[in-house]
Amino acid sequence: MALEVSSAVIHVLLEQARSAHPQECCGILFGAAGRILQTAPARNVHLLPDSHFEIDPQALVDAHRAARAGGPQVAGFYHSHPNGLAEPSRTDREMAARDGMIWAIVAAGRVCFWRSGDAGFEPLPYVATHR
């Protein structure tokens, strides 16, 4: 079954990647039950933002705190590869928690979704919805 992603989310991810170029954009994905409905951009606090990303830890704390209080559930994370492919890099593979979270990677005008699990990253087919 394909992941459902709001077409508005796809638009936001593409726009954030374009706006952040030549640096990597990053943020948090929200949703549940096989759906991604919202995003929250976060500051990329990595020391080398042209080639790496690190989501601002306060943004993560705030997102998880809001989810526990009944807000949107954290489904995963996103970032861009300004000069790469829309697939996990070697660094992404090394740093991933393998916790089942969804990763969206934006590159070259494309958004691809991946699930980080015990076996590494698996591609997630998706359909854009008009929600």
UniProtKB/TrEMBL annotation:
SMART domains: JAB_MPN
Claim: Nucleotide-binding is one of the keywords in the record: no
GO molecular function: metalloexopeptidase activity; zinc ion binding
Transmembrane residue ranges: none
Domain of life: Bacteria
Example GO BP: proteolysis
Record-annotated MPN domain positions: 3-131
UniProt keyword terms in alphabetical order: Hydrolase, Metal-binding, Metalloprotease, Protease, Zinc
Record-linked Gene3D superfamilies: Cytidine Deaminase, domain 2
PANTHER family documented for this protein: CYSO-CYSTEINE PEPTIDASE (PTHR34858:SF1)
This protein's name: M67 family metallopeptidase
Organism for this UniProt entry: Qipengyuania soli
